[in-house]
Write a structure and sequence with these properties.
This protein is an alpha+beta fold and 117 residues long. Helix content is 35%, strand content 24%. It has 3 helices and 5 strands, in the order αβαβββαβ. Strands 1, 2, 3, 4 and 5 form a 5-stranded antiparallel beta sheet that branches. Helix 2 packs antiparallel against helix 3.
């Protein structure tokens, strides 16, 4: 992950970025031939802590799928999933947008990616 984006991640062990930066990193991962194997939204509270809603998904490699096809398919599916989740967020249909103390939350995406082994 580029150093500038790594500094913006909510985690030092995982890729957890704003929707715009997460979309950018999916492009970077795809070019580097890393497959996105999972994603989930994270919600950042005003104090810097975060929540993990029970939403997200995994992208499993299909039988006989070559690595390059898998990388491109998972990048596409991840972009689509993040777009749909962002639309839910923007349309006020997201299940939790305000913390228990009434402060607004910020949407982030956590991505899990692997290189070909």
């Amino acid at each position: 992950m580029p150093h500038s984006l790594k500094e913006q991640s909510l985690s030092d062990r995982e890729i957890v970025l704003t929707p715009e930066n997460a979309s950018h990193i999916v492009d970077v991962l795809e070019v580097a031939q890393w497959a996105v194997v999972g994603w989930e939204p994270w919600l950042k509270l005003a104090d810097g802590s975060h929540l993990h809603p029970v939403v997200g998904g995994d992208f499993v490699r299909e039988e006989h799928e070559d690595w390059t096809a898998y990388v491109h398919r998972t990048a596409h599916l991840c972009r689509q999933a993040m777009k749909e989740e962002q639309e839910r967020w923007d349309s006020e249909n997201f299940p939790l947008k305000v913390s228990p103390d009434g402060r607004e939350l910020t949407l982030y995406f956590c991505l899990t990616a692997i290189a070909e082994s």
